[in-house]
Amino acid sequence: MRVKEVADLVGISVRTLHHYDEIGLLIPEETTEAGYRKYSQDNLTMLQQILFFKELGFPLRKIGEIINDPSFDRQEALMLHRKMLLERRRRLDGIIATIDKTIQHSKGEIEMTDKEKFAGFDFSSNPYEQEARERWGNAAVEQANDKVGKMSKSGQEALSEGMNDIYRKLANLRGTSPQSAEAQAAIGEWYDFLNRLGSYSSEAFKGLGQMYVDDERFTKNIDQFGEGLAQFMCEAMSVFAENNSKE
């Protein structure tokens, strides 16, 4: 297909395709002696992948790094795109429902509680993935996504409950010293839990604990199990990392 045909098919401009070619993001299968760009089916497949990443807010430079990485797995990427878009749809559906109720409320047709007025504004649903990627690279995050994505619904529920059990155990210990044997045993369970999903070094584990207190979204989420839990975990994770730095 020629560039104009591709542009018409996809709904983007010819200039955009020219730009993708110029920056090495999407190089046509062939460029004729007359300078006409010709795109193959493989080109179209890659263009679709680029647009999926773009829809999710990835900058072009980052998209290029991802798709040109020899370890890039298109099938895995598609599954991740799907999960991220489903989460976006879930949040949008919640906000739309709140808008509909607000319209009815403004007409005097229904009453709304203060809590209902803010339903759908879910700022705690997985806001941390990008930070984790930037701080420790993609490996641990992608590995965790892959493992969780392959689990059955019951498996995912069991995973969530296991996570909450550790949070509750740590919450019951937050009045003790982070260096105590009980606290270190419990935080060791958290370390083992995370490493069943990804691959966290002692240093990365310590850095994650620091993020629990540096980022108010982490703090708010964790402190649901008990006020001060995020700070307690941060300190306990630091001690654990120092004690296990040779591992």
TrEMBL record:
Pfam family, one: TipAS
CDD domains, A to Z: HTH_TipAL-Mta (cd01106)
Protein source organism: Paenibacillus segetis
UniProt KW keywords: Activator, DNA-binding, Transcription, Transcription regulation
Domain of life: Bacteria
Designated name of the protein: MerR family transcriptional regulator
Gene: tipA
HTH merR-type domain segment(s): 1-69
InterPro entries registered for this protein in UniProt: DNA-bd_dom_put_sf, MerR-type_HTH_dom, MerR_fam, TipA-like_antibiotic-bd, TipAS_dom
